[in-house]
């Protein structure tokens, strides 16, 4: 504890407001340190486990430089499904997100979105519909064009889906510029429906895709500027 008699040596005893400020600062710092130490002591296994799990997942996402065209660092998530235990933990985590818990329907995006979307749909007991690339869906469809980080495409959904559901949580493997999800959002909005949220496995934060959206966005692994810089 602070010994006020020592403070007199430097003349602080004569300034009561400095004394009070100093003792508040020391009590505040001691309390914060105590809370952090207590929290770490009780949760260090969970904290280490969390870092380990993230690392375990991140190690399965390989980066292919200049694929499918020069300047693109392609993040390949397919390694995750070769490790069922990691895949299971990822699906449990994504399924327990409030975006999924509160959604009416999942809409997953062609094609890697289907892998994660259908597993989440099963785990969370939520219906799933699909947004597909050109020429893949039978029956009456509605279509919207969009720009990708590496090209141009269009997405379609079956008209019959619109009669059944009003609100959709989007599931995809990766969020980059946000153009793909924006396309799905516009497709639904133009037909009187809405996107309630977006959840992805990976997010490339430097491309600021999430800033395009008003609905909640979650991602499990984010690749930051610095990391992308070092990978280049
Ligand atoms: P975007 O519309 O720019 O947010 O791009 C997201 C969609 O394109 C997702 O469906 C991804 O599968 C794919 N994609 C875009 N950029 C990448 C990348 N760097 N690595 C892997 N997939 C990507």
What does this molecule look like?
The structure is a single chain. Residues 225-232 have low confidence and may be disordered. A hairpin with a 7-residue loop joins strand 1 and strand 2 (73-76). 44% of the residues lie in helices and 26% in strands. The radius of gyration is 25 Å and the shape is elongated. The strands form three sheets. It has a five-stranded parallel sheet. With 232 residues, it is of the alpha/beta class. Helix 3 crosses helix 5. The chain contains eight helices and nine strands. Bound molecules: adenosine monophosphate (AMP). Adenosine monophosphate binds at residues 72-75, 109, 112, 148-149, 172-180, 209.
Order of SSEs, N→C?
HHEEHHEHEEEHEHEEH
**Helix coverage percent:** 40-55%
Biggest sheet record? 5 strands, parallel
- What sort of overall outline do the alpha carbons produce when their principal axes are compared? elongated
Question: Low-confidence parts, pLDDT < 50 over ≥5 residues?
Answer: 225-232
Question: Which ions, cofactors or small ligands are bound in this entry?
Answer: adenosine monophosphate
Strand order of the largest sheet: 4-3-7-8-9
Query: How many helical elements?
Result: 8
Mean pLDDT: 87
Taking the alpha carbons of the first and last residues, their distance comes to 52 Å
């Amino acid at each position: 504890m602070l010994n006020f008699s020592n403070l007199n040596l430097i003349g602080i005893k004569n300034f009561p407001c400095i004394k009070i400020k100093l003792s508040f600062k020391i009590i505040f710092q001691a309390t914060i340190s105590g809370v952090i130490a207590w929290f770490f002591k009780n949760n260090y296994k969970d904290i280490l486990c969390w870092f380990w799990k993230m690392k375990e997942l991140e190690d399965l996402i390989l980066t292919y430089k200049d694929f499918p065209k020069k300047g693109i660092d392609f993040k390949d998530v397919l390694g995750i499904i070769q490790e069922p235990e990691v895949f299971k933990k990822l699906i449990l985590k994504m399924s327990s997100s409030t975006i999924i818990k509160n959604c009416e329907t999942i809409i997953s995006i062609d094609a890697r979105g289907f892998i994660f979307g259908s597993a989440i749909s099963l785990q969370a007991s939520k219906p799933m519909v699909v947004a597909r690339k050109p020429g893949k869906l039978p029956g009456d469809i509605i279509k919207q064009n969009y720009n990708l980080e590496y090209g141009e495409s269009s997405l379609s959904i079956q008209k019959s889906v619109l009669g059944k559901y009003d609100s959709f949580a989007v599931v995809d493997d990766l969020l980059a510029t946000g153009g793909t999800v924006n396309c799905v959002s516009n497709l639904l909005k133009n037909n009187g429906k809405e996107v309630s949220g977006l959840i992805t496995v990976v997010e490339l934060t430097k491309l600021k895709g999430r800033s395009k959206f008003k609905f909640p966005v979650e991602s499990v692994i984010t690749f930051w500027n610095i990391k992308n810089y070092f990978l280049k």
